[in-house]
Amino acid sequence: MAHPLIAPSILSADFARLGEEIAAVATPGPTRADWVHVDVMDAHFVPNLTLGLPVVQSLLKSTDVPVDCHLMIDDPDRWAIGYAEAGAYNVTVHVEAAKDPVKLAKDLRAAGAKAGLSIKPGTPLEAHLDTLKHYDTLLVMSVEPGFGGQSFIPDVLEKVRTARRLVDTGHLKLIVEIDGGINADTIEQAAEAGVDCFVAGSAVYGADDPGRAVAALREQAAR
Ligand code: DX5
Ligand code: ZN
């Protein structure tokens, strides 16, 4: 992968200092994140609760790094648009939660965001290929959504390979993103399978120097 994108997930950051934590990966140069990944959880779609639109609105005002919102929520058809209107760069909804994902993608794009579709580890890709024609990013979950610091599930790489093939043959136009358990031990296999954008929470914010972790992961993915 020539230009791998690294998206630190602030789920593993210090929530009392989110602005500073994002600033730690925002200095121009190799330690800068390509996107900042923000995990929105509602304690319904996943058994955890994080943050919502007001916090994202404030973060958007505090950084120029593109913000990648991963909505692990019920009824994204109703709530996702607010994140696009607030200025998020990419807004990802779960295919397991969206009622009308094609309309949702159109609405997100019309509001100026990229539209992202996420699939849980147990959700097959094949059933959603037509829907994906309307999307800009595909977020393949490599852990069960809900918590940081879980172990990478290598089986999902088969979905990455399928998506990569469909993109490379011109059948789909997608940025392939992976989320969950990405670290120095797993990023190379994900890169080999064809991932474009790597979300990393604990591997970045669990490190002494988050910026250096971003640079190191990007170098590894580019090998
Ligand atoms: C999990 C979240 C991930 C999480 C990844 O549901 O979607 O973005 O922050 O954390 P790590 O990289 O620690 O697995
Ligand atoms: Zn995420």
Automatic annotation (TrEMBL):
GO terms for biological process: pentose catabolic process; pentose-phosphate shunt. It catalyses: D-ribulose 5-phosphate = D-xylulose 5-phosphate. GO terms for molecular function: D-ribulose-phosphate 3-epimerase activity; metal ion binding. A divalent metal cation binds at H37, D39, H70, D179. Its cofactor is Co(2+); Zn(2+); Fe(2+); Mn(2+). Keywords: Carbohydrate metabolism, Cobalt, Isomerase, Manganese, Metal-binding, Zinc. Substrate binds at S9, H70, G146, F147, G148, G149, D179, G180, G181, G201, S202. It is an enzyme of class 5 (isomerase). GO terms for cellular component: cytoplasm. Pathway: Carbohydrate degradation. The active site is at D39, D179. It holds the Pfam family Ribul_P_3_epim. Binds 1 divalent metal cation per subunit. Its EC number is 5.1.3.1. Belongs to the ribulose-phosphate 3-epimerase family. Catalyzes the reversible epimerization of D-ribulose 5-phosphate to D-xylulose 5-phosphate. NCBIfam families: PRK05581.1-4, rpe. This is Ribulose-phosphate 3-epimerase. It comes from Amycolatopsis sulphurea. The gene is rpe.
